[in-house]
Amino acid sequence: MNEEFYVGVLDKLVAFLWKIGPVVIEAIVALVVGVFLIRILKKLLKRFMRRANTELSLRSFIESLATFVLYGVLFATIGIIIGIEATSFIAMFGGAAIAVGLALQGSLANFAGGVLILAFKPFRVGDLIEVNNTLGFVQKIDILYTRLKTYDGRMITMPNGNVANSNVDNRTINLTRRVDLTIRVGLDEDIDKVIAIIHESMSANPAALKEPAPDTFLDGIEEYCLRFTGRAWSDTEEYWPIYWDQLANVKKALDANGIKIAIPKREIVYAPTPPQESKG
């Protein structure tokens, strides 16, 4: 009896495999062919966007979105091949989409943030931006995330929802930037002389733009020093090299003219001790 039972189970298993075998093979073939076609379509899409001179930020976003949609269509096709009816599959997919949407509200917000970033273009791939106290170059804008590379080589991934709802300081959106220096010298220094030294030093820098012209002025009188501000304009790409050169050149010029950088000082006065009365 046991032998008959096992033979019956084996026959049913063979019949089942024989029935679903072609379907499984079709599904595997569809998966392999689909992955191959998706790769080809992605290459064609990249080539088309390259020829159309599409922005780098928009390219990465479209590539990510296209990958998501194409694989979704592929899995839907495989589901229909396996035997899931189109209407049932659509209903199941719709229900799953609602459930996933409720569970991934943050991701949907990030997707919307990515759309807003591409629509209003507060920054693009390659721009130097500061967001949420993080300064870095935009490397990629995906469907859900923006990636920044910092000056020290770190890769920071930020959700697009947070980026779209934060203040974005784009340091490279304009062609020129202003270099500001704050210099503090002693209260007894000659104001006109200090202004002339700082202004001449900053104007002599060949990398500083002639228009707008550099300017220098007394910006405040503090309790221990005179505060001067020197300003000069530069090309955005040369901002930091010019800033460092200006800072060093102004310090050297002040030293050469005997003007010292102010150091905070405090004057302490001791009250005289009253004489003690002698007891007789």
TrEMBL record:
SUPFAM superfamilies: Mechanosensitive channel protein MscS (YggB), C-terminal domain (SSF82689), Mechanosensitive channel protein MscS (YggB), transmembrane region (SSF82861), Sm-like ribonucleoproteins (SSF50182)
Keyword Transmembrane: yes
GO molecular function term, any single one: mechanosensitive monoatomic ion channel activity
Protein name, as recorded: Mechanosensitive ion channel family protein
Assigned GO CC terms: plasma membrane
Transmembrane segments: 20-41, 61-84, 90-120
Keywords assigned by UniProt, alphabetized: Cell membrane, Membrane, Transmembrane, Transmembrane helix
Localization: Cell membrane
InterPro entries named among the record's database cross-references: LSM_dom_sf, MS_channel_C, MscS_archaea/bacteria_type, MscS_beta-dom_sf, MscS_channel_2nd, MscS_channel_C_sf, MscS_channel_TM-2
Mechanosensitive ion channel MscS C-terminal domain ranges (all copies): 179-261
Bilayer topology term: Multi-pass membrane protein
Keyword Cell membrane: yes
Pfam families xrefs: MS_channel_2nd, MS_channel_3rd
